[in-house]
Amino acid sequence: MVHSTNRDTDAHQPLTSYQKPLKLEELTWPKVEQYLQKSRKIVWPMGSTEQHGPSGILGIDFLSSLKIAEAVSGLTQVMMAPVLPFGMAVHHMDFAGTMTLTPATYLQVLTELFQSLFKHGFTEIFVINGHGGNIAPITSALSQCKQKEETQVLKLINWWILPEVIAYEKQVFGNENGFHATCGEISVTRYTHPEAYQDVLFERLPLTANAPHWPMSPREFRAHYPAGNMGSQPILSSAEHGEKIFSIATAAIQKIVLP
Ligand SMILES: [Zn+2]
User: Fold this and answer.
1) Does the model's pTM come out above 0.70?
2) pLDDT tens, residue by residue, 49-65
3) DSSP character for 225?
């Protein structure tokens, strides 16, 4: 496992102790066909590539979903689809590095990829999503598919708002968890990708008022949230909290995927 040499993860082993995830991209088509004889389920991690304030890495939303999905697939041996690292992040485009699809394109991408999975007989898709801006397009894409199809089920799991995750984050971060570049999501990637945070500076960020309206244009967003975060104090984040949140989310999703 990639983190085995890092001192931050040597202390605790959960990331490495899961069974090997069952990844679609590492199988041949006859193996996928064989899998479909016994299960119709697939886990699909998705997120976004977008700014996460001065102390959060751009990949948070898809890296967190990916790592959680790998753990869930390892534990349940339910197959997982390749991560979709791009989503609807138009409002973050005034910050360097953000890559977004427009809502219409993202809806089309999702619809066509859902249809691909449905076509092969995956009738139960568990989307593990890491980004709020994706929720409406994911739901709309399924509505598009459902015009014709009746047997397919999509379970949208927004990992950061699972009740178990909210309860823990409320307890340790209180009102300073925030709504974007939250202490929780930054903690998870400090746990899963500690090397990416080696040179990152954590300091208290200025308070900002809630958004006056939503959605916001890129310029409006940056004018209102100059640091990029929304109401969070990432200085409270840590790899230790990340490990805890990661295992809480994984356990909760495991129960949803294999009740
Ligand atoms: Zn995020």
Assistant:
1) yes
2) 999 999 999 999 999 99
3) S
